Amino acid sequence: MLDFVQQLVSGVALGCVYGLIALGFVLVYKATEVVNFAQGDLMMLGGFFAFTFIGMMGLNYWLGFAGAVAAMALFGMVAERVVVRPILGYPQFSIIMVTIGLGYFLRSVAGMIWGTDDLKIDTPFSQGVLRMGSLVLAYDKLSVIAATMILCTLLWLFFNKTMLGTAMRASSENMLAAYYMGIPVKRVVSVVWAISAAVATCAGVLLAPITFIHSNVGLVLGLKAFPAAVLGGFGSIPGAVVGGVLIGVIESMAGFYLPEGGRTSRPTSCCSPCCS
Question: Three-state secondary structure along 217-253?
Answer without folding.
Answer: HHHHHHHHHHHHHHHCCCCCHHHHHHHHHHHHHHHHH
